Amino acid sequence: MKLITLGTGAGNPSMTRNNSASYLETAHGGYLIDAGAPAAASMIRKGIDFNDLRAVFITHLHEDHFGGLSGILNNRMRPSVRESPKWRGFWPEIWLPTEEAVSVFRQLMNLEHFGDDDDQILYRVIRPGLFYDDGYLKVRAVPNRHCRRMGKILPSYCFVLEAEGKKLVCTGDLAHDVTDFPVEDAADADLVLCELTHFHPDAGMSYFRRIHPGKLVFNHVAESYEKLFSEFSGELEYPAAVARDGDEFEF
Ligand SMILES: [Zn+2]
Ligand SMILES: [Zn+2]
Hints:
Blueprint: E1 2-7, E2 21-26, E3 29-35, H1 39-45, E4 53-57, H2 63-66, H3 69-77, H4 80-83, E5 93-96, H5 99-113, E6 122-125, E7 129-133, E8 138-143, E9 148-149, E10 152-153, E11 157-163, E12 166-170, H6 183-186, E13 191-196, H7 201-208, E14 216-221, H8 223-226, H9 229-233, E15 240-242, E16 247-250
Parallel strand pairs: 3-4, 4-5, 5-6, 12-13, 13-14, 14-15
Antiparallel strand pairs: 1-2, 1-16, 2-3, 7-8, 8-11, 9-10, 11-12
Bound molecules: zinc ion (2 copies).
């Protein structure tokens, strides 16, 4: 399997980093984990065919994680998709953290496509625990505490993805105290994709030392913390890297 980090920026895009979006490529199709802008353009530039896209999983409802989703949906709603010789016979499932988000995206796409081809997008709502299993890939949602508003914790998830005998953990965005880092799941993962913006690496190290993944890759990268990477990563007993846009990680 291969993970392609399409967008690796923190909240705002920078000169070199777009918003959060990663593509998991398997023998049976591809899956998008977050769809920050410009996810559709990034897929095209990496030569990824929209026909291969089986599902999109959005970790939480901050714009830097879903701002490119309408572009993805637009590409999949074109009637020409079905007539393409590359048509694989399935429409992608779009997994969102809340019912409200499903309603908003449905309205947005109706506005653009007048309700035509509405059946070509299969909206779903993520629930904690195992929520996706297409026979090739299983995805589990582990709630974190990244999204807070007026004392309430809103839906936001780490994802644990398993396929082809391999395990990938994507942290999504985490809480500032990083106490919601998914230690148990990351401990033996083949690849951990962890954000590097909402907590100081020193705080993260107390968790990174407790895991032993095949590789730890950072995305959602704050420039100030990227500068510290060479210092703190030297203390890890396994490979680690800071992802750039367009990087590919085989595992
Ligand atoms: Zn973010
Ligand atoms: Zn966020």
